[in-house]
Amino acid sequence: MIKNIAIIAFLSITSLISWAQHDAQNYEGEWIGFLPDKSSFNFQVLLEKLDGQKYRLTIANNNTLINKEVPSIDENYVRFDLDQQLFFDLKYDDDQQGLTGYIKTGKFYYYVS
C-alpha cells in the first residue's frame, strides 16, 4: 500500500513539473561545437588493384573504418557500391597510374583524383 502511494505521489510530482515547463524554446539556427579530434571528418581513401576486377578499399582517419575487398562491376572503369550507401565511379587516367571520378554518398557527389 505504501509503495503504491509513493508511486502515485512520484508520478503526480513529475507530471506537475513537466506541465510547469510551458516556456520551452525552439533552438533553431546556428550551433557552435568543438570536436576533440580534428581528423574526425578527414578521411584517407586508398584503392589497391588486386587480381582481375578486384580492389582493396581502405577508408581511414585515425582509425581504419573500412578495409574490404570489392569487385568492380565494369572492367574498363572502377565501379562498385558498399551496402547501397557509398558508390564509386572512377576511371583510369591515360597513363593508367591514377584514378579520377566520383564518390557518391546519399545525395552528394564528391569529385576525387
Q: What is shown here, in short?
A:
16% of the residues lie in helices and 40% in strands.
Share of β-strand residues: 35-45%
Could you list the spans in which at least 5 consecutive residues all have pLDDT below 50?
none
Percent of residues in helices: 10-25%
Q: Which quaternary structure do these chains form?
A: single chain
First-last Cα distance? 72 Å
Mean pLDDT reading: 80
DSSP E strands, number? 7
Shape: elongated
Total number of helical segments? 1
Biggest sheet strand line-up: 4-5-6-7
CA gyration radius, whole angstroms? 26 Å
Largest sheet: 4 strands, antiparallel
Structural class: alpha+beta
Taken in chain order, the helices and strands follow as HEEEEEEE
Q: What is this structure's SSE topology?
A:
Layout (H helix, E strand, L loop, with lengths): L1 H18 L24 E6 L4 E7 L3 E8 L6 E5 L3 E7 L6 E7 L2 E5 L1
Antiparallel strand pairs: 1-2, 2-3, 4-5, 5-6, 6-7
Characterization of this structure:
The termini are far apart. The protein has one helix spanning 2-19; strands spanning 44-49, 54-60, 64-71, 78-82, 86-92, 99-105, 108-112. The chain has a domain at 44-112. Strands 4-5-6-7 form a four-stranded antiparallel β-sheet, with no helix packed on it. The protein has one helix and seven strands; from the N terminus they run H-E-E-E-E-E-E-E. 16% of the residues lie in helices and 40% in strands. A hairpin with a 3-residue loop joins strand 2 and strand 3 (64-71). By secondary structure, the chain is of the alpha+beta class.
